[in-house]
Write a structure and sequence with these properties.
103 residues
Length: 103
Amino acid sequence: MIKLFFNNFTTAWKLPRWRWALLLALISDILGFVFTFTPPVHWIIDVVTVIVLFTAIGFKWLLLPALIVEVIPGVQLFPAWTLVVLALAGTENKTENKNESST
């Protein structure tokens, strides 16, 4: 499990669009933690985050459940954006490897 996490992290860090997405997710999760007790600010941060992530890495369905998790009080302390970006980077890497091996 930890090996998979680090594999996804290194994958995300190597490619510029995933690097930007990961940095944005980390910043968003930190700001979300800071603004936990001001929900309207937290919601604005989350909406901006999902829009920028869609721009950076394209439309990914897993970003929508992360947005839902981020608006649930109490659960929003969970670093959903960061974990979703890492998971997506890992699955994207597997997809790219399959495409490269089939050509």
